[in-house]
Amino acid sequence: MSGTTEKAREEGAVDVPKARGRTAGVLGRLKKDRPLPGKNELYLMIFAIFMVMFIVGWNDASQGPLLPLLQEYYQVDYVIISLIWIAIAVGVVAAAVSNVYLADILGFGLLTPLGAFVQSIGYVLMCWGGPYPIFVIAYIFAGLGMGWQDAQVNSLAARMPHATTVMFMSHAVYGLGATVSPFVATAFVQRVTSRFYLYFTISLALALGTVVVLLLTFKGRSEDQIVGQRSEARANEEKPKDVTMVPTESGEVADLEVRGSSQKLKAILSTPRAYFLAIYIFLYMGVEVTIGGWATTFLIEERGGNSSSGYVSSGFFGGLTVGRIVLIPVTNWLGHRKSVYIYTVIAIGLEFVVWFVPSLIGSALCFSLVGVAIGPMYPSCVMIITEVMPHDLHTGTIGFIACLGVVGSAIMPFITGAIADRHGVWVLQPLMVALLAASMGMWFFVARASTYKQ
């Protein structure tokens, strides 16, 4: 028997490394050759990506209009209510840590619907108006599920044909979800005040629908089975298998061989540009979610608004959507690096207007225009990842920056709530100006990063 095996190896009939690879993961599914999807199938897959981004945006924008009523329902102050953002961060950090490993085991086609299912568990815990500790724990599940989905769909979108357009459109759909949900949430606040938490049944239905669409559309495919194997992975099949990963003096990791999960994570954490990208997204997401979460309260307390001010969150995220669609040609013309500087300066100017001009309508309009200005920033950052990081680190790096981004989106609203509890919610504007200025400083280091030669 052993002689037969040795003979087969010598004749090339048995590729031992490939055979080992096929035993890994879920029944070796990720290593099997499958026909690439056709054009129509690819369109359905892009639609499924859009569904994921829609529900993530829906979730992120829900808190703003509900915040005043949540405080009243649970009898908590700004600081305690801000714990929901901390809970989301805990979930996303867990997703970022596990994403690299689970992506290698389950692949896109199983990990992404698993994320949507875990997100739906969070909504099950939210939709019956239970005790506040359970409500907070529910956001951990939501954050975990969204973290897995976010990393997977961004990595796939960055490898799709016409990647820039797909990336910007997917993030525009995120903005669409974030635009629609405040309308629905505000309707619940105004018409079903005593049972406003039933709003989360709609979120639950959307999440479960996303699970079904992902399973039926991708049929368990890995990322390589959707868009084709990466060129360096194909080349590595012909390389000797005793080649190891060695960091260069500059801190970059030589992409000599298809890396295991631990090697990928180590490579990401040893690359300075990954930290620049992550810190930038930390600051950016801090701005986006803090404005989306606190703009309604700001307008009610500082500009004399009423419960209809919840629609301003829709205006802000609607602006985000418009910016990610309308500014695609502008961003392509200017380039991702230069355009972010210009958009940030515009956003800072608009925040100064909100800060110093005491007008309800003017502030609401400026919040929407801030959304337009900052809209292209996140997708531009993801596209920069595809330029400056090795191919096999894209998914892990996106998961890493998404992790820091959600930490920023948790810490900054929490800090805003803590300061507002002591000094008033007017502090929203100086904090946003400071964060935008800091993000522009960090973008300097991101923009300097040279393109990685794949």
UniProtKB/TrEMBL annotation:
<dbReference type="GO" id="GO:0012505">
    <property type="term" value="C:endomembrane system"/>
</dbReference>
<feature type="transmembrane region" description="Helical">
    <location>
        <begin position="196"/>
        <end position="218"/>
    </location>
</feature>
<feature type="transmembrane region" description="Helical">
    <location>
        <begin position="315"/>
        <end position="334"/>
    </location>
</feature>
<feature type="transmembrane region" description="Helical">
    <location>
        <begin position="426"/>
        <end position="446"/>
    </location>
</feature>
<feature type="transmembrane region" description="Helical">
    <location>
        <begin position="78"/>
        <end position="98"/>
    </location>
</feature>
<dbReference type="InterPro" id="IPR051788">
    <property type="entry name" value="MFS_Transporter"/>
</dbReference>
<keyword id="KW-0472">Membrane</keyword>
<dbReference type="Pfam" id="PF07690">
    <property type="entry name" value="MFS_1"/>
</dbReference>
<feature type="domain" description="Major facilitator superfamily (MFS) profile">
    <location>
        <begin position="274"/>
        <end position="454"/>
    </location>
</feature>
<feature type="transmembrane region" description="Helical">
    <location>
        <begin position="341"/>
        <end position="361"/>
    </location>
</feature>
<dbReference type="InterPro" id="IPR020846">
    <property type="entry name" value="MFS_dom"/>
</dbReference>
<comment type="similarity">
    <text>Belongs to the major facilitator superfamily.</text>
</comment>
<feature type="transmembrane region" description="Helical">
    <location>
        <begin position="274"/>
        <end position="295"/>
    </location>
</feature>
<feature type="transmembrane region" description="Helical">
    <location>
        <begin position="172"/>
        <end position="190"/>
    </location>
</feature>
<protein>
    <submittedName>
        <fullName>Major facilitator superfamily domain-containing protein</fullName>
    </submittedName>
</protein>
<feature type="transmembrane region" description="Helical">
    <location>
        <begin position="367"/>
        <end position="386"/>
    </location>
</feature>
<dbReference type="GO" id="GO:0016020">
    <property type="term" value="C:membrane"/>
</dbReference>
<dbReference type="GO" id="GO:0022857">
    <property type="term" value="F:transmembrane transporter activity"/>
</dbReference>
<feature type="transmembrane region" description="Helical">
    <location>
        <begin position="398"/>
        <end position="420"/>
    </location>
</feature>
<feature type="transmembrane region" description="Helical">
    <location>
        <begin position="42"/>
        <end position="58"/>
    </location>
</feature>
<dbReference type="InterPro" id="IPR036259">
    <property type="entry name" value="MFS_trans_sf"/>
</dbReference>
<keyword id="KW-0813">Transport</keyword>
<keyword id="KW-1133">Transmembrane helix</keyword>
<feature type="transmembrane region" description="Helical">
    <location>
        <begin position="132"/>
        <end position="151"/>
    </location>
</feature>
<keyword id="KW-0812">Transmembrane</keyword>
<dbReference type="InterPro" id="IPR011701">
    <property type="entry name" value="MFS"/>
</dbReference>
